[in-house]
Specification:
alpha/beta; TIM Barrel; 8-stranded parallel beta barrel; 7 helices; globular; binds ligand LARABZUK
């Protein structure tokens, strides 16, 4: 059985990047969305990613990014994937992948089984699907809100792309989430924070320990 992949998302300081690496995270996420308390500019992202070894994924999290924004981030040379959290349709996802040559993860907001099925439209366009909780209409952010969806919706789903689970995961529920869904990758943000946008070294360590034991 292969090891569970762990993505710690919304990192914005060198000490929490270091903690995530030491704790065994396989992927680090950097949010580039000015409305987010986790937003990092391209230069900061480059500096944060600089000490990260090549076997650890470095993922930029974006919402309906323009090509100009993508060009700025791509120019950092720091990224192994782009995670799209907006209303990007499959054609836009495919165009981004082709233009920037960086693997694309599409976040799919989930509330019902139909949302899971909607991921199929991204086969051939995205490289990876991240199932995340659907945030309420008018919410400030499309992710990073600590909301979870009904994990049993993933039972028996036939998924045509590699995928991961996100939304409301934390130290106390990650094992249950993996047991129910069989997720090969788990992604956490607010579950390892002491306040919005403030990552906790202790919580990152505890989450990675709990996930590694799955
Ligand atoms: O985290 C943000 O601030 C954010 C802003 C805009 C788009 C996406 C964002 N986060 C996406 C993530 O990858 C989170 O890790 C994911 O939604 C899970 O968050 P949480 O429920 O807080 O663990």
């Amino acid at each position: 059985m292969s090891r569970l992949a762990i993505k710690i998302c919304g990192l914005s300081t060198p000490d929490t990047v270091g903690a995530a690496m030491r704790a065994g995270a396989t992927h680090l996420g950097f949010v580039h969305f000015p409305k987010s308390p986790r937003h990092v500019e391209a230069d900061r992202l480059r500096a944060l990613a600089a000490p990260v070894p090549s076997h650890v994924g470095r993922v930029a999290v974006l919402v309906d990014p323009t090509d100009e924004t993508l060009a700025d981030l791509s120019a950092t040379g720091a990224l192994t994937a782009l995670q799209l959290h907006g209303k990007e349709i499959p054609e836009r996802v495919a165009a981004i992948r082709q233009r920037f040559g960086i693997p694309v993860w599409k976040a799919i907001p989930v509330k019902t089984r139909a949302d899971i099925d909607a991921a199929g439209a991204y086969a051939g366009a995205a490289d990876f699907i991240l199932f995340d909780a659907k945030t309420p209409e008018g919410a400030a952010l499309p992710g990073g809100m600590g909301l979870r969806f009904d994990w049993t919706l993933l039972r028996g789903a036939s998924l045509s792309l590699p995928w991961g689970l996100s939304g409301g995961l934390g130290i106390d529920n990650v094992a249950e989430a993996v047991r129910i869904t069989g997720a090969p990758l788990v992604d956490v943000s607010s579950g390892v924070e002491s306040a919005p946008g403030i990552k906790s070294v202790d919580k990152i360590m505890a989450f990675c320990n709990a996930a590694s034991a799955c």
